[in-house]
Every structure is written in C-alpha cells, then in structure tokens.
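INTERNAL AUDIT FORM
Audit reference: QA-55
Scope: verify that the stored structure record matches its stored sequence.
Auditor: D.O.
Record contents follow.
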Amino acid sequence: MSRQALELSKLDQFTARAPAGGTPQETALAATANRFPSREPADEAQLNIKLPAAEAARFRRLAKADRYTLGAFLTQLMDGYERQG
C-alpha cells in the first residue's frame, strides 16, 4: 500500500493575518489577562527517592489503602513526624 503525495500547492490559498494593532503595553496587558490556568507555574516539585523495592511497594500500598496520592501521603507522614517532635 503506497501513500499519496501531499498536494502542497493547496497551501498557497492561505494567507497570513494582519498583525493586531495596539501598543506593546496593550499587548502585554491582554496577554496577562487571557492566561489559561494550566499555563500558570505550578508550585510543585518532583522528588526521586532510592529505596528497596519492597519499601516502595509498601509505601504505595499504604497510600492507596487510604486513597492518597503519593505526594499527599508523604505530606501526611512528614506532618505526623513533626508533631511527634
């Protein structure tokens, strides 16, 4: 089964839009006002821990038993540790 060649000549019908008017300040203000929440920087970090496979499985099993994400479960453990102080 062979592929058909692309008809690149059809791309000629498209033309670029004229740039929107406005000062650089207006453009910056519009860009800031129209940000998507998913584009905001997240206050998250990734933590990689090397430990025996059995302990990693235990950690996942305990977190899953109470329906915690791994990060939320780690937070619960750290909070409990600090309370024992």
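Auditor finding: record pair retrieved intact. The mean pLDDT is 87.
Action required: none
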